[in-house]
Amino acid sequence: MSDLSKINAPLDPGIKDAVELLRKAEIDTTASCDGKHDGKNELPSISVNVPDESQFYHIRHKISLALIRAKYHGFTIEEGRLYQKDFNPWKTQIRITFWGEAKPDK
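Now predict its structure.
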């Protein structure tokens, strides 16, 4: 797990179950938001650490299996690169965006 996963900030209630599911599947989540802050109504999302770019497809597959097996639907998984001071990517990450509430089917 990355150092970012060790922050003890409380998880947003609308994304907590999905984050905990991914963490149980040993997926290194680094950030999450249920999209309901400061009067906003945005889509819930989770960011996942990709420590080595060669692991991107493996991690993406692991995420989709975990969510689909838990009966989540309506989400996208996208690759992103974080940049800081120059044109070289600082870090690769995966962003999961849910199209509605981050809740599984019952």
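Residues 1-5 have pLDDT under 50 and may be disordered.
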